[in-house]
Amino acid sequence: MSSPTARRYAKAIFMIGVEEGKLDLLTRELNDLAATLKGSPELLGLLANPVVREDSRRAVMNDIAGRMGLSPTARNVAMLLSDRRKGALIPDVAAALSALGDEKAGKVQAEVTSAVPLSDAQYARLTGVLERLTGKSITLSRKVDPGLIGGVVTRIGDKVYDGSVRTRLEELRTTALQA
Known about the structure:
alpha+beta
């Protein structure tokens, strides 16, 4: 979940992207920049460090933007966040921007955690059920957690659909202790 600050920046960037007719490009570029930053903890640390001078942060961000070939709008966003000592928020801003774009397009991100990897057919069936449930197009991200024992846990935004064996066993234990 992104911070309120990241969501505020994302909303402003979203409006700029829609106004310019380049929301998809802007979202893609900021997600690429976010992936680059997340791949380098040292770089994120530099952007978050209050001791690093503004001109140094600006030079680093300008170099990254140049190497990535970011559009002028994406470069301006990166520079603005860097100048305001918010460069380390770029991954959260990119995630919030993606969510706003998906919402506009009628898409929803769902995270499915299962005890064992599911087959493509099982994921397809689960996607169909979730699309009927939400009335929106679903994009699944997949995780595996053997601690679930069996079943799946699905998170769509703030809603969690827990069909795991671990939870069912915990419910049985609680019921048995109350009886």
